[in-house]
Design brief:
The protein is mainly alpha-helical. It has a domain at about 25-75. The protein is built from 3 helices and no strands. Helix 1 (about 5-10) crosses helix 2 (about 35-50).
Length: about 80
Amino acid sequence: MVNNKKVIIECLDVEDVTFDINGEDLLDQIGWDSLSAIHLLTKFSNDYSIDIDPDDLEHLKTVEDLDQFLSNLLDDSV
């Protein structure tokens, strides 16, 4: 289960409302790119006052990796 699915899809800027992701999906195969990363950095800065180091995103390969990373950030901010 992807806990942060809405945020991830929002950062992908996908117009297709039927678009779905799974934890096993590779980020580059679902269209994750540098623009998606910028959307994520901006969203977390604006919505949660959390600054993400862009270098921390480089090691993430799957949706599950990204989801866990985001969950940890949100847990640490509480």
